[in-house]
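The protein record quoted in full:

***
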Amino acid sequence: MNKPHQYLPNSVTEVKEKMMDSIGIKSIEELYSDIPDNLRFKKELLIPGPLNELEVKETVLSNLLKNSNLRCAPFLGGGVWPHYVPSVVDEVVRRAEFLTSYTPYQPEISQGILQCIFEYQSLICELVGMSVANASLYDWSTAIGEAALLANRLNHRNTVLVPSLISPKRLKVLKTYAEPAGIKVEMIEYDQETGQIEIEDLKNKVNQNTAAIYIENPSYLGFVEEQVEKISEIAHDNKSLFIVGVDPISLGILKAPGEYGADIVVGEGQPLGNHMNFGGPLLGIFACNHDNALIRQMPGRIIGITETIEDKRRAFVMTLQTREQHIRREKATSNICSNEALCCVASSVYLSLLGPKGMKELGELITSRAHYAMRKLNELPSIKTPMFKSYHFKEFTVNFNCSIDEVNKNLLSAHIQGGLPLKPYFPEFGDSALFCVTEMHTKKDIDILVSTLKEVLN
């Protein structure tokens, strides 16, 4: 036999051939046959080396020096946002007790991480106005998919209604979850002037096959859905579940979904003390009302509190584990078998630091700055913002009378990250982009954006 590679024990030809015979293939290439040919990288990877440790460090550092810095926080919206993370959040999550705790199966030695996740669940419930939250999912997208599957299991209906202005990427994940389960995803039209869900179209599409109605509030394009009570009523009159997707930061100033009849609340926890990190890891929020059938069908883990038998001491445990893969295997309610525990810890610290008053002040600050940005941008003759006549939170659409790609290219050359182009997802919007403004954007930053756009567009 050939001498094996010191780090790749299966690199020996004879071992490879035995493995391929076992699974019925003749070449490694057959493993990738389901990947479209145009997506395959057919060139050799230009990896320098071999290098020693010092040389690797020098190579990486020299490459990092090629990066350019933005003049201000990115204005790019669409699902991951620049929010301030207090330093104490990072200090807590970097503690070895949390950093090394992955899955707390043994409650007797995992009380710290279990308590922190329990606190996270409690804080999320208070924030979204629900009774029970789980110990997190991967992100907002997977939370929607899991909510659709839950609705289908609960009422055995096979259609989920979603707004036409849903996040395109979240929609793709939802369909990935739904289609193999035989669930149809149907779009609800929107009012062309306000962007609000078209109630008459919703009424026409709701029927005995409707498992759930899903809305995003604020919407993907940043405006607040103002008909939530009416939509909730339509869902419940039809005995369908009402699922609401939220940006949790908005709940400092907006009514909690539980207060207008949501059965399930999902959302993205990244703004709650988690850095952008080039798009991940994210934190899927999932909460429901106190309905026993809903709770037992929830995906992921729930951490509960109890007491020891002998000395009546408080104890934290993973509860309702009969829903999970490690016990029920293929009969589990979900294939979500992991959790974003470290992101939960960050969110727990963040929410504890801000409290209700801090969340309210933050929401007001973000709204104020976003509306200031819209006013200043509207002063430019070649720009219209926002597209819809509705109240906006931190994101808003900006329409240009020229190529948005060229605008963003010129902004980037001025070290400013522009908005997310919407043409690939909503071609009817033309050259428009989704901008976001958070507490990280000062008045000076907004003025720099406006002045730079003025130069770019002239």
